[in-house]
Amino acid sequence: MKSSDQALVIFSGGQDSTTCLLQALAQHGSDHVQAISYIYGQRHAIELECAKAIAEDLGVKQTIIDLSLIGQITSNALMNDKAVIEDAADGPPNTMVDGRNALFLMYAAIYAKSQGIKHIYIGVSETDFSGYADCRDVFIKSMNVSLNLSMDYDFQIHTPLMYLTKAETWALADELGYLDYVREKTHTCYLGVQGGCGECPSCILRNRGLAEYLATK
């Protein structure tokens, strides 16, 4: 049975957030799901273009919020022309945007409360991830508590992909009936190459997971 409660999906147009959007649509129904997307100074626009196209295609209301001010206080390989380094020996990869998911969740919660929405979806995972501290389950749970306390509102943050490998995320898209859709419509490449560069860490993870899943079919 589908819930009549409304849901808000933090939506980038990538594989993971699109799969979360599809999960929310299946769970809550198309009339009860909205998407929220962010401009945060990312160095290419193709992901947001995909997000707009997908939201329109699926009939989902999308709100876009400009958080590009974060670029005034921090910078990394997603926000400049530096080479992507995922296996940094002295800390997290240089694609990590400090505070990004905290900001995304906070602004999503502010918007959600204004709309009477209690369910927030975010496509983070600590199984196949790049060492980002704000993708961990413990962080999401702490944000859930903090947001509930700060706004005196009963938010429920959902992380459908938290313990899924990338292959299992592809399997979920297939289970929802959207494997080819996610494969063709979403964008995950760090370098902003249409269809993916096939060489950046994000493309490698995505393609490897797809190959692993297709091998089981």
Describe this entry's structure for a reader:
- By secondary structure, this protein is α/β, with parallel strands linked by helices.
- The chain is built from 7 helices and 5 strands.
- It has a 5-stranded parallel β-sheet with strand order 3-2-1-4-5, with helices on both faces.
- Helix 1 links the parallel strand 1 (7-10) and strand 2 (33-39).
Explain briefly what this protein structure is.
This protein is of the alpha/beta class and 217 residues long. The chain has helices spanning 15-28, 46-58, 100-114, 137-151, 166-175, 179-185, 201-214, and strands at 7-10, 33-39, 61-66, 119-121, 156-158.
Features:
217 residues; 7 helices; 5 strands; globular
Cα-based radius of gyration, to the nearest Å: 16 Å
Report the β-strand fraction as a percent range: 5-15%
Q: How would you spell out the order of helices and strands?
A: EHEHEHEHEHHH
- Report the mean per-residue pLDDT as an integer: 87
Number of beta strands: 5
- Our count of helices gives 7
Low-confidence stretches: none
- Give the class from helix and strand content and strand pairing: alpha/beta
Sheet with most strands: strand arrangement: 3-2-1-4-5
The biggest sheet amounts to: 5 strands, parallel
Which percent bin holds the helix content? 40-55%
Principal-axes shape call: globular
